[in-house]
Structure formats: C-alpha cells, structure tokens
Design brief:
This protein is an alpha/beta fold. β9, α8 and β10 form a beta-alpha-beta unit. It starts with a strand and ends in a 6-residue tail after the last helix. The chain binds flavin-adenine dinucleotide. Flavin-adenine dinucleotide binds next to α1, β2, α2, α3 and β4.
Length: 476
C-alpha cells in the first residue's frame, strides 16, 4: 500500500465536497478529493439537475397555455424523446469529465476510489482495480459523502423491484401507471414531471395529512389541488400497508389504508419510493473514530464532528443531516473551508433561514420557520396572507396565476421569521425573504423597499399593507 500526505482530504465530490475542497485550496493548502462514483454527486446526475430538466417542458407548456394570444400556438403535448435528450444533456450523459476538469482547474487533486477513515487524520482509498493507498491529512478531513434513498419498512417492499431517485431521474420511458410512495419534494416533483411526460395514471400516497409535510399545511393543500386538477390521484393521511409484484416485472399491487379508514388497492407498473434519505456513512470507517456507522455525523456550528477530539474532522452537506439541500451544503462547505484556513466563522444561515423550493407547478418556496415552529419557540407570532393572483403582474403573466403567500412575523421585534410562497415561479420571490430574515430587517425598514410595478414582488407591499390593516400597526 502506498502512502501520501496532503493538508486537507475531502471524502466525496458532490456539491458540498467540491466546494469545501475549492475553498480550502484557495489559500494555498494542498487538497485532495476522493470520489467513488461521479464528480458532481447526486445533485448533478440523479437529483436537482435531471429532475428540473424533466419538469421544465411541462411547466413551460402550462405557462404558455395560460396566456391568451400565445396559448393557441401550443398544439401538442410534451415531446418525451426531446425532453429526455435535454435531460441527458443536463447530466452530460452521466459523464463527469467536465466536473473532474473543474476540480483539477482549482488546484485540487482528484483521487478515484472508495475512501474509508482509518483512524486520526487518515483515509484509506480502494481503487476500482482493488489497489489501496493510505493518505494522511496534516490539517483536516472533510466528510461529504451525502445520502441515498431510504426504504421504509413496508411489508413486501424489500422483496420487489422498486424505483428510487436514481431510477426515476434516468428512466427512458414513462411508466403507464406510476405509484409514488411519499409526498415530499422528490415525490411530488417526479409525480408531476412524469404525468406531463406521458404516464397515464399517477398516484401519490402520503402518510401525513398534507403533501410537503414539513411546510405550511396550506402549501401542501394548494399543491394537492393543482396535481389533482391535472389528473394525479393524491391520497394524504394514507398508509401503504403492503406491496406485492407479479413476478419480477409484472404489475405492482399496493394495499393502502386511506384517511377515512377504508382500504384500497392501487395497481401500478412502477413504484417510486420517495420517503426520505439515509446518510452514506455505513462503510466510511466511522467506527475507527468511535462514531456509529450508518448515522448522520452530527456537527457543531464550525461543521466539526461531535465526539472527535482535536478539531480535525468536518462533515458538510447532506451527511450531517442539518439540511438536505445543495445550496445549504455548499454554504456549509464555504464555512468549513474558511475555518480550516483559520477564519473564525460559524454556520447559522442553513438553520436559521433555510431556503427551500419545490419546483412543481405551482412552486412551493419557503424560508425560516413555519407558523407552528415559531409558536413552539415561544415567539409572539402574527401571520399575514395574500393571494399573489391579486397583484397586477399576475394578470399580466397569465390567467389563473395565483397562490397564497404568507409571512410569519415576530410581532415583538417586528421582523419576519418565516415566509412561504405558493405560485408559478414562487422560488424567484424567495430570496428577498431570506435576506429579510438573515438581516433581521424590520417591517418598518421593509416599508421603504419599493417593489417595481408590475412585478410579482409587489406582493411584498400588499403583505405589509395587509399586516398593517389586520394587526392595526403603523410603519414609520
Ligand atoms: C431527485 C432529487 C432532486 C433534488 N432536487 C434538489 C433541488 O432542486 N435543490 C436542492 O437544493 N437539492 C435538491 N436535492 C438534494 C441534493 O441533491 C442534495 O442535497 C445534494 O446532492 C447533497 O450534496 P452532498 O455533496 O452533500 O452529497 P452528494 O451529492 O450525495 O454527494 C456525495 C458524494 O460522495 C461520494 N461518496 C460517498 N461515499 C463515498 C466514499 N466512501 N468514498 C468516496 N466517495 C464517496 C458519492 O459518490 C457522491 O458523489 C435533490 C435530491 C434528489 C434525490
């Protein structure tokens, strides 16, 4: 076994690992990144990018169909072959040469293989040909090994062929009947995409009482209505009790207890399991450090792993479980990279104001606390809602451009602690809310931030006016 030394080793070249390596290398440290599959990680090849590419054609058609004068030009449906070609281009046909080139261009060495921690500051890498090398990091090791699809303990599920996020984002044809277990972000996005792409029957089964169970209930409910309107069957408050399949690729039959207590059987050609993620930590040598394999690596706000002495082991991105999103993982990577370089910095933007966008039509975009979370924290909560359909820009953009927007306000401090936007392109409205929360901008100051006419951002003015009137306050 050969042995090498670097200042910093990064385990996993997804978005979080790539960014940690880049930032750590900027001040002249010698950095290597270890990757066992594709440089770019889940997001580039089986997550964000292909899923958004699959959604966009249907969304574009829907958008035009709401604009009198233009809608008559839309004469057909989504072209599946063309849409899949675009998806394949988005993922560079699952070839990471471009991203590997970027890693090298920022002065980071790429080492291909499966990495395992082997005691303090040491990683052992096993290459595809079975050869191993031991690498020592003089300063730090950053674990960024991400997550994989988790499977719930539903009787029968482990015995049949099912789809996870990798299968659904790489599929070459639309299953005629698609059952989606789990109404979170991945489930709802893929249900809508494949309905647009040609699946005739799409059914979502969600255990909680509304889709997107971690968001405001009204957001999931408005999304469910939109999905049902396009022919998707949505069961909320419903438990999948058993799943069977005829042979290896015959029809799937799922027995589901519905919210009203009755039981139904759903037949499908494929079943997407989208009920959560598990950390990729079962085979990365955590036991050599006294940490438990298979668990998220909990961290402090420097992104240093709890329970590891010496301040040398960081964990960024999905693997620490703080927030399972690309942009928050990259933020953590920036903080960890700077901390390794001696900057006294801590992460808080990923927990205090996590921006989340579900790219369905309508989009659901949220940041900060939900109303319930704010109340649980003992905040003196006031909320205000407005229908974005009532701002002038909405009617300019098209018929039926609507959706609820809500602010959660800390009334005592007169600052926003949470915001939710539902509607077409709602995600583009989100960053203003993120800035307001991160900057603790008071409502009195926001009153002087004048939105342009006619833009959707005018909803900010309408919300402040509604807050003023409903809660009898004045802005200076
Ligand atoms: C369908 C889907 C859609 C999504 N859409 C969005 C979205 O729109 N916006 C958003 O913000 N997030 C989205 N996400 C979430 C996003 O993909 C993740 O949050 C993000 O990829 C996490 O980045 P990461 O670098 O932490 O981990 P990953 O992207 O999982 O990368 C980890 C890397 O580590 C490598 N690795 C693991 N173990 C080892 C080892 N032992 N040795 C060497 N290499 C190893 C893996 O091969 C992988 O390349 C989506 C996820 C899915 C599944």
């Amino acid at each position: 076994m050969t042995s090498t030394t670097y200042d910093v080793l990064v385990l996993g070249a997804g978005p979080a690992g790539e960014n940690a390596a880049d930032i750590a290398a900027r001040d002249g440290l010698r950095v290597a990144i270890i990757e066992r599959e594709l440089v770019g990680g889940e997001c580039s090849y089986w997550g964000c990018m292909p899923s958004k590419a699959l959604l966009r054609p249907g969304e574009a058609l829907e958008e035009v169909s709401r604009v009198p004068g233009a809608r008559h030009a839309v004469t057909g449906d989504v072209d599946l072959e063309d849409a899949l070609r675009r998806r394949d281009a988005f993922t560079s046909n699952w070839d990471d040469a471009g991203q590997a080139g970027w890693v090298e261009s920022v002065g980071v060495d790429l080492i291909r293989g499966h990495g395992r921690l082997a005691g303090e500051r040491t990683v052992e890498v096993t290459a595809g040909d079975g050869t191993s090398q031991r690498i020592v990091a003089t300063k730090a090791v950053v674990v960024a090994t991400g997550t994989s699809s988790a499977s719930p303990p539903i009787p029968g599920l482990a015995d049949i062929a099912t789809w996870d996020n990798r299968d659904i984002t790489t599929a070459k044809q639309a299953p005629r009947r698609l059952l989606v277990i789990g109404g979170g972000a991945i489930g709802v996005e893929m249900a809508q995409a494949w309905k647009w792409l040609g699946s005739e029957e799409v059914t979502i089964v969600e255990l909680f009482d509304h889709l997107l169970s971690r968001e405001e209930p009204f957001a999931g409910d408005e999304l469910a209505l939109a999905l049902e309107k396009m022919g998707i069957t949505v069961h909320v408050g419903a438990a999948t009790q058993r799943v069977d399949r005829d042979g290896t690729d015959g029809p799937v039959r799922a027995s589901v207890r519905l919210g009203d207590g009755s039981t139904t059987t759903i037949e499908a050609d494929e079943v997407l399991v989208a009920t959560g993620r598990r950390p990729n930590t079962d085979d990365i040598g955590l036991d050599t450090l006294g940490l438990e394999p298979g668990r998220f690596i909990t961290v402090d706000d420097h992104l240093l792993a709890n329970g590891v002495e010496g301040g040398w082991l960081y964990a960024v991105g999905d693997v620490n479980g703080r927030s399972l999103l690309t942009h928050t993982g990259k933020y953590q990577a920036r903080i960890a990279g700077a901390h390794i370089n001696g900057v006294d910095t801590k992460a808080w933007g990923d927990t205090k104001a996590t921006p989340r966008v579900v790219f369905t039509s309508p989009e659901v975009a949220a940041v900060g606390l939900t109303e319930r979370q704010a109340r649980e924290q003992g905040i003196d909560v006031r909320t205000v809602r407005y229908d974005i359909g009532h701002v002038a820009a909405a009617s300019v953009l098209g018929k039926g451009h609507k959706g609820t927007v809500q602010l959660v306000v800390d009334a005592a401090r007169r600052v926003i602690v949470g915001a939710t936007f539902v509607g077409p392109r709602a995600g583009e409205l989100l960053h203003a809310a993120t800035i307001a929360i991160v900057g603790e901008v008071t409502l009195d100051t926001l009153w002087h931030a004048v939105p342009s006419f006619p833009t959707l951002s005018e909803v900010w003015l309408r919300l402040l006016e509604a807050y003023r009137d409903e809660h009898q306050v004045r802005f200076a």
